[in-house]
Amino acid sequence: MEALAIAIIVVVVLVIIYLIVQNVKKNDEIEKLTQTEERLREENSNLTKQAKELHDKVSMLEYQTYQLRAQSHTLKNLAQNVQDSISHLYRRSSDITDIMSILSFKTANS
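Now predict its structure.
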């Protein structure tokens, strides 16, 4: 009877040890998963920051592109205005030349 009691105690102790070992293994797995979760959250945070920085850079590039287009349009308008002014001055100088020719012709014939 004593041998049976000792055998039962040994089996119970072995089952308890087995359960403790399994619990320790699960705790280790939980700790590893927790560390992985923390690492993934940190990576997610970093990726979110990088995405925001890239979005800001894209916005800045779009703004600069808009400015360059606006500047080129302004420069085109300015060049057109200068060209129009030169053309107008040329027509005026031609008119003045014609008037001077007429005046000099009249003074020469008088």
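Helices lie at 2-109.
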